[in-house]
Amino acid sequence: MAEKFDHLEEHLEKFVENIRQLGIIVSDFQPSSQAGLNQKLNFIVTGLQDIDKCRQQLHDISVPLEVFEYIDQGRNPQLYTKECLERALAKNEQVKGKIDTMKKFKSLLIQELSKVFPEDMAKYRSIRGRNPSSDEICELNIYSILWIRKLRLKEETDILNAHS
C-alpha cells in the first residue's frame, strides 16, 4: 500500500515542478521559448495522466473532509489525527466512568434487593452464577418484573399503613 502512495507522491512532485517551471517560462515568455513552453505543456498533460492512473489504484482510500479543511486553513493535517485520538480518549474515559457507575449501581441494587427479597435473590444468584438458558433468561426477566411489582406493593402497603 505504501508503494502506491510513494508512486503518487513522486508523480505529484514531478507535476508541481513542471507547473513551477511553466510559470517561469510564461512569466518571461519570448517567441523563441515556444518550443520549451510546448514541451512543458506536454509534460503537464502526461503528468495529469500519470496522476489519474495512480487515482485508479487508490480508489478505495477515503480521506475525511475535515482533513481538507485543516489543509485549507493552513493547519497540519496530522493535527487532525491527534485531535481525533484525543477526542476518542476523552469519550473512552467518559464511557468508562458510566460503566463503573452502572456496576456500582448494580451492586447496590443487588444488596438492597437481597434484604427485601432474600429467596428471590438466592434464585437469581443461582441462575446468574452459570450460563443461563433462554428459558432462565426469560425467567430472570419475569423475576425483574415481579420485584418491581413487589416493591410497588410494599410501597403502597406502607402508605396505607401510614394513613391508618
TrEMBL record:
Compartments it resides in: Nucleus
Classification of source organism: Eukaryota, Metazoa, Chordata, Craniata, Vertebrata
Description of how the protein assembles with itself and partners: Component of the Mediator complex, which is composed of MED1, MED4, MED6, MED7, MED8, MED9, MED10, MED11, MED12, MED13, MED13L, MED14, MED15, MED16, MED17, MED18, MED19, MED20, MED21, MED22, MED23, MED24, MED25, MED26, MED27, MED29, MED30, MED31, CCNC, CDK8 and CDC2L6/CDK11. The MED12, MED13, CCNC and CDK8 subunits form a distinct module termed the CDK8 module. Mediator containing the CDK8 module is less active than Mediator lacking this module in supporting transcriptional activation.
Name of the protein in its database record: Mediator of RNA polymerase II transcription subunit 10
A GO-annotated cellular component: nucleoplasm
Pfam families referenced in this protein's UniProt entry, alphabetically: Med10
GO biological process, one term: positive regulation of transcription by RNA polymerase II
Function summary: Component of the Mediator complex, a coactivator involved in the regulated transcription of nearly all RNA polymerase II-dependent genes. Mediator functions as a bridge to convey information from gene-specific regulatory proteins to the basal RNA polymerase II transcription machinery. Mediator is recruited to promoters by direct interactions with regulatory proteins and serves as a scaffold for the assembly of a functional preinitiation complex with RNA polymerase II and the general transcription factors.
Gene Ontology MF terms in the entry: transcription coregulator activity
Residue ranges of the TM segments: none
